[in-house]
Amino acid sequence: MSRKYRKVKHSSANVSATQKAYVKHHINRMRKIRITQFLILISFFLLWEITTRLKVIDPFIFSSPSRVLKTFIQMMVDGQLFFHVGITLLETFASFIIVIVLGIFIAVILWWNDNIAQIFDPYLVILNALPKSALAPVFIVWLGNNMKTIIVAAVSVALFGTIINLYTDFINVEEDKIKLIKTLGGSKADVLFKVIIPSNIPSIISVMKINIGLSLVGVIIGEFLAAKSGLGYLIVYGSQVFKLDLVMTSIVILCVVATGLYKVLSVIEKKYK
Amino acid sequence: MSLLKIDNISYSYHNLEGETHALANVSFEVLDGEFLAIVGPSGCGKSTLLSLIAGLFEPSNGFIYINDKNIKTSGKNIGYMLQKDHLLEWRDTYKNVTLGLEIQNKLHENSYMQINELLNTYGLISFKNSYPSELSGGMRQRAALIRTLLLEPDILLLDEPFSALDYQTRLEVSDDIWSIIKKEKKTAILITHDIAEAISMADRIIVLTDRPGSVKSVFEISLNIKNKTPFNSRIAPEFSNYFNLIWKELNNNEQKV
């Protein structure tokens, strides 16, 4: 945020009074929005802490910020935090990369051959519409109680939507751009590599942005059912043994992890714009 | 000497609703170094004709010869300029003008001299590393033309290349493109629905009938002016005569419908 302020102030040098007033108004408004956002966060945690202290709600079931903080510090000290977050991140990245590579590859095949695209269209629609969590138990039976199952589950959550989105974007590239490549003597491969892929970099990145979130959803579903480690496992394990401090701490960490992943891709997206 | 010979070609589009006859028995010849314009009512198959000459698809009937060789064996020596410049937004000017060379694997160490020379001659050298969004409409069209010229085509096909430009830019760009084509001694076929544009640029004008398009009449254009440029042509005394002639010819067409 401070960077944005500086930018605005810098560009406001040597300008009219009305422009300065406008910029000042804008900065004030942004500042108010930030402060309100921060206040909401603080009051949420305060309300949570106070109501549990006063026993309005049961701290054993609801935990409390101070308990979460204590659990968090303890998990940092004994290294559990890094282990479980690491496992979840590893599974998320693995499935994310598989989804992107496989998604682009299959979308290219469908774009390349219209017959294949038409033949597989209804199957893609079914697979995309199916709630993939229904498949997770099947994967456990087939693949066992391990990381493979979790990654396959996560891939299944994100893959079909990715294929459909990318394929739609690929076939919607301006017809004349394709004609241009042909008039320059280019082949279908030239059309793919000179026009279709480069013109779809923004849409590939926006698909990636959605997928990093979906991969995390898939990984957590997978960890609920088939894991001995990871944040999903901690949440399920904690709820089963009524260690709600552990559950709440894991959820808070998950919030941070999810936001962090999203932010990383937002930065990449900005670089390409 | 005739460079291009169109011999009695016809073309139909097919879809499930039926067949559309776009062109019927079109024949004409284009001389080496000539600037030919083709005008006709909209939907009369003008663009189809260019696509056929460019070899993008084959005529249903008839033949196209370049230098007396059937187009299928004559190689890709045709440059095609589309309605819009279609510079690729993610490539800078340099990468855009070399796109054709890159596709045909003709981008060598010694191409750089020629590329720089063309960019320099046509006022784009200082915009070599600019992206299309930073160029004016005229610069974009010149870049598109250089992209086509670098492939050293025998014939340039211009498919209403100025229609996306505003009127003022359009006049400037017509002058630009016309003088580049004349300077490089290229043979060109211009498709347009703008009669004035056709008269101002062409040596000869072919008027097509309504769909299915065929040759209706041919006009040799000779304007009595010094230093011919498309812009100067517009003030030639014969200009309005040609305009009226061709206008009548086109309107006859429409009354038949």
Instruction: Name the CATH architecture of chain B.
Output: 3-Layer(aba) Sandwich
Give the averaged pLDDT of chain B, no decimals: 86
Oligomer: heterodimer
Class of chain B in CATH? Answer: Alpha Beta
Tally of domains of chain B: 1
Biggest sheet record of chain B: 6 strands, mixed
Low-confidence stretches of chain B: none
What is the chain-wise order of helices and strands of chain A? HHHHHHHHHHHHH
Q: How many strands appear in the DSSP assignment of chain A?
A: 0
List how many beta strands of chain B DSSP finds. Answer: 10
How many helices of chain A? The count is 13
Shape of chain A: flat
User: Which strand-content bin applies to the residues of chain B?
Assistant: 25-35%
CA distance, first residue to last residue of chain B: 37 Å
Which chains have the largest interface?
Answer: A-B, 17 and 20 residues
Arithmetic mean pLDDT of chain A: 91
CATH architecture of the largest domain in chain A: Orthogonal Bundle
